[in-house]
Here is the input.
Amino acid sequence: MNAMDTKEKADLASLPIGIFDSGVGGLTVYRALHDRLPNERFVYLGDTARVPYGTKSLATVERYALENAQFLASFGIKLLVVACNTASALALPQVRAKIGLDVVGVIGPGGRKAVEIAGCETPRIGVIATEATVASNAYADRILDACDKAEILQKACPLFVPLAEEGWTDAPETFSIAKKYLAAFDDFKPDAIVLGCTHYPILKEVIQQTVGENVKLVDSGEATADEVVDLLRDKALDNRNIVSGSRRLCDDLDHFFVTDATERFGNVAERFLGMKPTKLEAVEVYGSDNMKG
Ligand code: DGL
Here is the structure.
């Protein structure tokens, strides 16, 4: 590598990591990344004007995902994490083709982790996610890529999203809805269940208690963060310049954008992360195709 290459690499490594989600749920992925990468800065976009993605069509989710990705790319990022399971399931190839950057989605890492932690030759893996993610079969495809003997059962659990945002993490109503959804797995007897939606880790306790302690829960955001750590190290893109000592979640080194309802985003962020973002701005991403190639 010549001197120019080294300098370019160092400049690239000092750029932030971009993350987008349909709204606030991707903060669970941000937290997993932040925990593992205290030396990195993050730019987060929550598309709160157009959430939810989980009930929308392929064409619409693709368009939203591309606009979000282009908006973040226009800021100068070194890597894009598509934190939204629905956008990862439906639009990852299109985003990869359009953005000249490494792009990491949450489906592949979550699927691979499920096979790994099921820890048997013929794993029985449950997937809970939005309607669009389940209909796409993206998790089933990635799980079968990792283990073609896997048995898979998927179930959409759309009401978990508003329950998590309300902060009803141990309400009787949440338990009763969980019981109704997760009864789908009673006969299947999964070794592991993938939490295939950004919001579901917030309800992990309810889900675990409902399915029983023997079923391993896979947080695809955490699995994704593990793979991002490896990717940055393998490509020598990890940032060496920031002093990590004083970093905390949502501090002013991280920049948060939303497409609507800034105050609500801050309030739900506080519920999810225990604090509000210091730097939080409303922005329009539509037509950001023009902002950067
Ligand atoms: N962020 C979405 C996901 O992970 C859940 C919320 C939505 O439907 O947009 O699939």
Q: What stands out?
A: The radius of gyration is 19 Å. Residues 21-22, 25, 51-54, 84-86, 130, 133, 161, 197-199 surround D-glutamic acid (CB under 6 Å).
